[in-house]
Amino acid sequence: MPREGRAVPDATASSGVHGSGTQPETGAGRVPVLGRPGAERGAVGGAAEVAGRARRGGLGRRAESLAAAESGPVEVVAHRVGLAYREHGGVCHALRDVGLGLRGPGFVGIAGPSGSGKSSLLYLLAGLKRPTTGRIVALGREMDQLSPTERCLLRRRYFGFVFQQPFLIHFLTAAENVVVGAPRRDRAARGMAEALLGRLGLAGCCGRLPHELSGGQRQRVAAARALMNEPRILFADEPTAALDRASAEELMGLLHDYRHGHGALLAVVSHDETVTAAADAIVRMWDGRIRAIERPG
Questions:
Q1: Whole-angstrom Cα distance, residue 13 to residue 43?
Q2: Which residue in 164, 223, 171 sits closest to 197, CA to CA?
Q3: Is 239 left (phi over 0), alpha (psi -120 to 50) or beta?
Q4: Which domains does the chain have, with CATH numbers?
Q5: What is the chain's mean pLDDT, rounded?
Q6: Is this structure's pTM higher than 0.90?
Q7: 101-119: per-residue pLDDT in tens?
Q8: For a disulfide at 99, which of 16, 17, 51, 114, Cβ 3.0-4.6 Å?
Q9: CA–CA dist 199, 247 (Å, integer)
């Protein structure tokens, strides 16, 4: 997980970065946008469809504004964001003036050495952390303009996140941990949870508690939980780090099947080059900045 600490204003952020150098910033806030060019089916839907999705996600009267917000293809954009922490009497800059947009559907990898800011960037894009400077726009909405409840509901309905650690609830079974974030915890949700677990080779583990599972099995339960609400954007922070090669391939196969089947965007932080080899674009991080953006093929 990104470094924890107390966020402080970043008064020393320098110029942002795009493909290989500093990022030009216009009045409109231009940033490099990554994803699959021309493949924007997963980014938008009809207003009625979007409003229905929002209501099912528990947004109620906020559905209309979210429907309007989802009228463009760019799903989440970081505009010159910085992230700094006060730590041991000093200031630690996790990110410095980063600009990046992610467009769905597609697959974007984020790579770099430990401490380069890649996980911090993922957390900002997913709305799990708030930037010290700059702004995040998700589905056309300024994240800072949403209430804590609205941010939570937006993440629950439209985002999925696979953390480095599983963070399972210790007194719930594997299937119950998958269902826990669903809008309705009914028989249909239970059936979907069991199907996801079965796809990950955990059909016989649905009734087991977390302490009865191996580390790799717990991580696969966490991945199933991230897919439970059929997110439009799926974030994954080192999802295969605790898995053996066979389990890692099984997990990534599920994530790719999901993104292809649902027209979703998959953004993955990983040290493993085999995990990001199939990406439409790879963001290379270094010392809190984007050092380069590679587009394989």
A1: 31
A2: 223
A3: alpha
A4: 33-294 (3.40.50.300)
A5: 81
A6: no
A7: 998 789 999 999 999 999 9
A8: 16
A9: 11
